[in-house]
Amino acid sequence: MRKTLIASGAVAMLALGLAGCASSDDAADAAGATEWPESITLSLVPSVEGEDLAEALGPLTDYLSEGLGIEVEGVVATNYAATVEALGADQAQVVITDAGSLYNAIEQYDAKLIARDVRFGATSYAAVAYTNNPDKYCDDEPVMATYDASGIELSYCNGLEEAGASATGQGPKGVEAFEKLAGAKVALQAATSPAGYQYPVVAMRDAGIDTDADIEQIPVEGNNNAVLAVANGDAEVGFGYWDARTTVTSEVPDIAEKAVAFAYTEMIPNGGVAVANSLPADLVEELATLLDEYADSSEEAATVMFDLVGLSDWTTDTAEDEITRYGEILAQFQG
């Protein structure tokens, strides 16, 4: 009996020893999984060029380096697609990029969306349908509302905005009017433009309009020219971002009379920040917090942010469903 007990005790001790080894191995694996790298690389497409670039990028990377306690290096991508390629090749672990590239990074490389771009207080915007024929497309009298970003009063109908109030630009609204587009000349931008082509075309198709056969497409370059085509009578309807009419007020002071906004498409997402899935979760969490707080960290930070990437803020409210929807729309225009 004693021999049996000793043997049993030996087995028990061996089992405990193996369990101890397993626990140690698990702990080591867990520790390795959360170990921070000595440095990370951030890739972006800046708004500035040439010799101003290092000066513009430095304050952001310095701020992130100090906050994280590791080196953050900034590199410039030639275009938004290049940021995704850099992430996939592990040449960058953080990318600041547009909505389409965020979608591709998530789908192709399982990247994590951690922040969204904020412009003028919003993370998304609508494409706007403008017309010089409000009698046809408006079910009510146009009203004037203020576009706060520029302080200009502009015209809206179909309940898009409240008279005398600040315009909100929230869509979709008024898209039922697209059913009246058959036979119209419509100013459309390049097929790669979300506000000037993609979202408007999807909205028109949803309203039963064959955009190849039912309308005459008037090709234009840029949002300003889409508005000018309507103001000058070259097209009955044109599409641009909210609110592109502010870009032509010096040329057309009475643009509110010559181009009335009558519909908003569904919202188009701004870009944002995505990270490689190889980064430790606690590092990603801290990085997201730092980005969320950057614009308010100093007066210089707010200026740098606007000059570097044309933004007023980042937010950790990522609304990833908007990015997913953008990907669905993008797929309709890819071969």
From TrEMBL:
Top-level division of the source organism's lineage: Bacteria
Query: SUPFAM superfamilies, per this entry?
Result: Periplasmic binding protein-like II
What protein name does the entry list?
Answer: ABC transporter substrate-binding protein
Q: Tell me the classification of the organism that encodes this protein.
A: Bacteria, Bacillati, Actinomycetota, Actinomycetes, Micrococcales
